[in-house]
Design a protein that fits this description.
The complex is a heterodimer. By secondary structure, chain A is an alpha+beta fold. Chain A has one domain: Hotdog Thioesterase (Thiol Ester Dehydrase, Chain A, Roll). Chain A contains 3 helices and 5 strands. A 5-stranded antiparallel sheet of chain A has the order 1-3-4-5-2, with helices on one face. The radius of gyration of chain A is 17 Å and the shape is elongated. Chain A starts with 13 loop residues before the first strand and ends in an 18-residue tail after the last strand. In chain A, about 40% of the residues are buried. By secondary structure, chain B is of the alpha+beta class. In chain B, strands 1, 2, 3, 4, 5 and 6 form a 6-stranded antiparallel sheet that branches. The chains are: A alpha+beta, B alpha+beta. Chains A and B meet through helix 1, helix 3 and strand 2 of A and helix 2, helix 3 and strand 2 of B. Strand 2 of chain A pairs antiparallel with strand 2 of chain B, so a sheet runs across the interface. Chain A: This is Beta-hydroxyacyl-ACP dehydratase.
């Protein structure tokens, strides 16, 4: 795992691509890990017959967990996510090969001296977008800097 | 997509902006759930697995940020409780109020402040922000609504906020 610093990044940089095969276990484990007991995330018949979708599907907090994992794999543990905004246009189902890609959209330092990047992320399956996300992540400005030390007025996510 | 419906029933309009369902989490943040969450997404971040890294960077173990809502979600069952125990109760109230049996989430915004630490008890509260007029989508006919959730720890520190856009709908009969 790397320890990315702000000076190594520029607008337009690509994040590494990450892919994973989604199974029923992926969906159910993710739902239960986030304490989401709703049946569309573990009951096939409910998802198909009641919800009108093709299968059970990833729940919202678990999609957020996949994005967090993806971002921190890239930044290293000092990367501190301040904000994540995502739009789910189509569910992610068992049998899908989920591909995460991203691009650095902005690099900045705020008035408190905190270094930030904004990344645009896409979750695609077979080339079609299922979820898009924008993440604002604090990164160290120097090797000694640690965004996790920031509190109160020094943390502006 | 979630433009306010100016013809909303009065009882629903009265709920917009009002804090509802302030609830204390059922149990303190603990490592079992942290590891299960990490396992669910193959998250090898040493902050969650390595005591030395956690001590150095965050002054002790914290939870994955995306796990925030889990600490405030009710048990599926608990002694004395009746019926399904639900998080995001405002969402389910709207489904019942508008007689929309199905629902999905379409948008989610998470803003993270203080991280959740082992032993924290998380309190959540919900605020309905908007409800749209009826709209037809490929899923059926229904309404979009936006619900904000705020999370605080036992010391009153703000941990984060979430904003959900939900779509409650009824399926249309197919020919």
């Amino acid at each position: 795992m790397s320890d990315l610093t702000l000076d190594r990044l520029a607008k337009g940089d690509a994040l590494p691509t990450f892919g994973v095969d989604v199974t029923a276990t992926t969906v159910i484990l993710g739902a239960l890990a986030s304490r989401d007991w709703r049946p569309m995330h573990h009951d096939y018949k409910f998802a198909v017959e009641r919800q009108g979708v093709q299968d059970i599907f990833l729940n919202t907090p678990n999609q957020a967990a996949w994005f967090e994992r993806y971002l921190n794999d890239w930044t290293g543990p000092k990367g501190r996510i301040g904000r994540m905004v995502f739009r789910m246009t189509k569910p992610v189902f068992p049998g899908d090969h989920m591909l995460l890609t991203g691009t650095v959209d902005d690099v900045s330092v705020d008035e408190t001296g905190c270094g930030w990047i904004r990344a645009e992320i896409s979750l695609t399956v077979d080339g079609a977008v299922r979820t898009t996300a924008t993440a604002r992540i604090a990164l160290p400005t120097t090797p000694d800097d640690n965004p996790w030390d920031r509190r109160g007025e020094r943390w502006k996510p | 997509m979630t433009a306010q419906d100016t013809t909303l029933p009065e009882d629903v309009a009265a709920l917009i902006g009002k804090v509802q369902y302030e609830k204390r989490g059922d149990f303190p943040a603990e490592r079992g759930y942290i590891w299960t969450s990490c396992a669910s997404v193959q998250n090898g971040n040493p902050l969650f697995w390595d005591d030395a890294v956690a001590a150095e960077l965050t002054g002790g173990h914290i939870a994955p940020l995306s796990l925030l809502s889990a600490w405030a979600r009710p048990h599926y069952w608990a002694p004395g409780a009746e019926g399904e125990q639900l998080s995001l109760q405002v969402h389910f109230d709207l489904k019942i109020r508008f007689e929309l049996p199905e629902a999905i989430m379409t948008d989610n915004t998470n803003v993270f402040y203080e991280p959740v630490r082992l032993g924290d008890i998380v309190t959540s509260r919900q605020v309905l922000r908007s409800v749209s007029p009826e709209k037809r989508t490929k899923l059926g006919i229904g309404r979009f609504w936006v619900i904000d959730v705020e999370y605080h720890n036992q010391d009153g520190a703000l941990l984060g906020t979430e904003s959900y856009t939900g779509y409650g709908y009824r399926r249309e009969a197919t020919a």
